[in-house]
Every structure is written in structure tokens, then in C-alpha cells.
Amino acid sequence: MAPRRRCAVCGSKQWRKEPSSGLITCSEGHVLQSYRNETSEVTELGPHQMRKRALKSRRKKKEWQSKADPKLYHGERGRFHYYQCLQLLLRLQAAALIRAWKLPPEYEVVCRDVWTLHLSLLPTPPTAEPYFHVQSQNGGQSAASGPQTAEEKPVQAKDELDSNDIDDEDAKSTFSLSTEEGDDMDLEDLLRENSVAPSSASEDDDEDGSGPRVQQDQGQRKDKTAFRPFDSPAANIAILMLACWTLRLPVTYMDFKRLIESYDFPYLDPLRLLPEAVTQHLTKHTTKALSPQFPPIPLHVHGLTSHLAKLMFSSYNILTPECNAAPLLWRATRALQGTPTLYLLAKKLGKVVSLTLTLHYSLSPALRRVKMRDPEHHKYDNAPPEVALIAILIVALKLVYGFDGKKRVPRSGNDPACALPSFPDYFAAMQAAEDAEKTKRPAFLDTAPGSLESMLDLDETDIDKYIVFCQKALLPPGERRAKIAVLDEYFPLSEPLATLDADVATEQPSPEPVPTKTMPATGLRENSSDLRPGRAYLIYNSQDILGTLPDDYEKLLRRASDWTGVDEHYISGVVERYEHRLVRWWRTERGADKPEDSVSC
């Protein structure tokens, strides 16, 4: 910058530098004296001049390498491997059921066929990922094709470029057509949705899950979870249950739950049963998905089973038969300490209320519609069969005993209540059976809260059984267990482990205990002033959250809940619906309400 001094000629302080000559002049054009502009530009360098130059590095740059474990499978390959693990577990579970329930070998064949149908009916079936993975590793070529020669590569590359140009032109020409058609289709969908008037029937269908639903754009909404209920290990139990229905086996969902809790059925911590060559490829997410912490809820498993049966019928026209109701009803009768007379009463009531004994109500014939507003199916028609059967038994018991604190005595010999025991004897027998189950069942297998406060409460025999149970539940079986002989080394027992294991298996209580003594029948009282069975029938509202139930009726519901594994509130709702159906049938048969036939709610 020019110095801030005055010009010696005119005294101006405004200086500027000429761009052409490099001289500094004032505003009047006077040249500043004693100023020299030097340049250090050198055209040629001497022999002793030091110079710097950048040397090109000849080393190769390191490629970016992923820090992920190559043994772990991700993406579609991991999903395919996840289904492989589920298939191995299904084979182990089918073998465990055949061994525990002494099923025929054809059961495994049925399970295999149902598994194949289950995979084909998934919303997103697993792809042949190992084949695609081999292709990606070989650069998009199949393993059977050999390496390309040098002459074939340029020709192929040129053909690919030409085909890409043609494809781009076709894509540009078809893009406008597809967008116009897509806009027209969207407009038609909107007009169609606006033209459909909402109705009560459609709302019921939507609530039940069978009605039409508006399809959502898959690109707009993505699933937050990678695993759906149809992909969970509980779906394996649904497949096994559907195979039992196919063979007409009278099993319940609680039978599976009891086997799971006793670790006779591989469901909890099943990865210890799989080979190491399979488990080493599992990520933490697939490991968590394959290792449930608790047995599944019966209603959840029934939802998966009924959904699979409905899809099999709608897609492949494969009809799942009805449940084997006769032995299942007898099991429910014995669970409530009933007699053959109670069994016959429940059978007749089931015919009156039109019980649905299929896995899904769509598999059974629809109701006859007299009016347009009449429904095609009843509420709770999709309830588990064991819940429906035990609800009918509760209705029959309420007709006989009332369960409202009022005494009921039969007055005629034709009354079926004469063949049933008195209410005090029946209730005492049911309470004794419940207590016997608690005493026979090992305390460490009881999952009820407060059943076992401390392990110090166990005696020596129970402790030995508990150690054997831990060996079965925690250690891997077979050859892998021999490598980790923890119990034999640190807890040697005088009695062989096989004997104790057999004792644990044989001492497990049966689901339907047989009473030790016969209950006497109720005596006739012709001139009694007490109510007769079936009179002053009370229907308790299951939606009344502030209402209280009688103690006897609440214990009966709790007993039914323990046998079915379903909540008491759900069973109470099923009983209420069946009672209303029975009242409608009674009014239709009798023609009009009579004072003595009134029903209070």
C-alpha cells in the first residue's frame, strides 16, 4: 500500500498504482519519486538452486473393509437362515410330541405338509437367498457357467450398452403412460371409496377382520419390526395344532403350555438344541426372535391357528375338519368334576346354542338370514373350542345349581338334576381336586405367584428333582452334554439320573384328575319351598366392571380359566353370549314370556 504522505508537487494524499507500468502516481498524475518495483521472477535456475518436487506414491490404497462378522447372515440371507432354524425346531417339536403323546409316525408327515403350506401363505415368503448369494459372489453368473474369455467381454459389454439405451428409451416412453394410468387408477379408487356408504354390517366385518380393507401403499408405510407374528416360534405351535386337528386329536392349547413349562417340548431357549454350525450365523436380532422368554398365550396361538386354517381354505380349498368334540367335552367335564349326566346336558345345550366347533367361523355354514340385518355369525364364534365347551358346562351347572346363593332342589324324578350330586358335595369335590393338583405338581414347576417363596422350602427329594429338571432345561442334550458334565462332577447323586427323570415325568398331574370317591345323587323333595333347577336364572353382565360375582361362581370361573389358560373375563363373556342365545331359543319355543320363566340380568 502507498505511504500516507503528501505529494511534493501538489500536496495530495490520494495515490494509485498504474497497472501497466507499476508506478505510483497521485490524483493529479505526479509520479512518486524514490519508489522501486522489483520482481523476483526467474526464468532459468542455476545448477545449485534447490527445488522441491512431489513424488508420486506407488503404494496401493487400502480398500474399505467392513468390520462386520462375516459369519453372521443379514438381509434376505439371514431371513432364509431364520426359517431354516424354525424348520429344525419344528422337527424337534414334532418328535417331542410323538414321544410324549405316543402319536403315530404319520403326524410328522402332516406337520411337514402344513409347514409347506404355511411358507407359501406368508405375506412375504422367504426367497431362495443361497442361490442369489452364490450369483452375487460370482459377479452375477451362475456357478455352472464357466469364465468368460477376453474376446467375449467387449462384445458383451457393447451389447449391454445398446440394450441399456433401448431400455432407457422404452422406459421414458412408457413412464408417461404409466403415470397417466396410475393417476386414473388412483382417481377411480378415490371415487369408489366415496361412493361406498358405511353400514353396520361392514363395520362388524372390519372389526372382525374379514371385511374389505383399503390397501395401503407399501412405499409410504414400512413395518417397524422385522419379525411378524406369523414368523415367530408361536407359529410353529399353530402348525402343530393344525396337524392335531387334521388327525382329529382332542388336544388343547394348555397341553402345549404344560409341555413347554416342563421343558419336555423345545420352545424356551431352543438354541441349545440346534447344532453349532447353524447357531453361529445368527445375529442378536434373530437370536432374540428364536428365544421367547415365556410360553405363548392360548388366545394368541388360537388366532394364528385359525388364520392359517382360513388361508388354507381360501387359497387352496383345504378344509380343516371340526374338532373331536366328544372326548374334548369329556375332558372339560372331568376338569369341573362333572358326571356323565352333566356331559349329556352340555351336549344338548351345545346343540341348542349352535356351537361352532371349527377353527374359524368361515369354515362352518353361515347362519340363516331371515332379514337383511341378521348377522351371518354370532359373537365369540371364533373362540377356542375348549373355551366354548367349558362355557356350555358352566351354563348347565348354573341351570342346576344357580350359583347365586339360593338353594335349588328337584321335585320330579324326570328332572336331570336328580342324577347330579348336591351343591355342597359337588363344590367340595371341585375344591379337593384343585388342592390335589397343587400338591401333586412340583413347586418349582408352578408358575402361579406366591407358589414358592424360597428354595429352602423344598425337601431333599424335591431338590434332587429340581437338579434333574435344571439339567434338562439348561444343558444341551446328547454329545454336547457329555462335554459339560456339571451335575455329575459337582452334584453327584446316589440315585441314577434316569430314575429321577422318570419320576419327574410320571409324577406330573394329569389334566383331568379322577375323583377318589363317588358323590351321592340329590334327593327328591316334592313339597319343598325351595326353587327348582332352572328357575330365577341370573345372567351376569361381563361388561360391568363395578359388579361383583358370588364367591362360588367366581371360583368356578377361576377353575375353568386354569384349565383353558384363558382369562376369566373372556370366559364370562362367552358364557353370557350363550345364555342370551338360550333365552332367545326358550322364548321362541314357548311363544311368550311367563312370570315363572323370567330371566334376570
UniProtKB/TrEMBL annotation:
- Pfam (any one): Rrn7_cyclin_C
Give every Rrn7/TAF1B C-terminal cyclin domain span.
295-472
Which intervals carry biased composition (Basic and acidic residues)?
150-161
- A Gene Ontology cellular-component term: RNA polymerase I core factor complex
Read off the InterPro entries from this record.
Rrn7_cyclin_C (IPR048538), Rrn7_cyclin_N (IPR048540), TAF1B/Rrn7 (IPR033599)
Q: Where in the cell is it found?
A: Nucleus, Nucleolus
The entry lists its GO molecular-function terms as: RNA polymerase I core promoter sequence-specific DNA binding; zinc ion binding
Which terms does the UniProt entry file under GO BP?
Answer: nucleolar large rRNA transcription by RNA polymerase I
List where Polar residues composition bias occurs.
Answer: 134-148
- Entry keyword annotation includes Transcription regulation: yes
The segment annotated Disordered runs over 44-67, 130-228, 505-527
Q: Does the keyword Transcription apply?
A: yes
Per UniProt, the ranges with Basic residues bias are 49-62
Q: Which UniProt keywords are given for this protein, alphabetically ordered?
A: DNA-binding, Metal-binding, Nucleus, Transcription, Transcription regulation, Zinc, Zinc-finger
* Domain Rrn7/TAF1B N-terminal cyclin residue range list: 199-276
Matching entries from PANTHER family are given as: TATA BOX-BINDING PROTEIN-ASSOCIATED FACTOR RNA POLYMERASE I SUBUNIT B (PTHR31576)
Family to which the UniProt record says this protein belongs:
Belongs to the RRN7/TAF1B family.
Q: What is this protein called?
A: RRN7-type domain-containing protein
Q: Which organism is it from?
A: Phanerochaete carnosa (strain HHB-10118-sp)
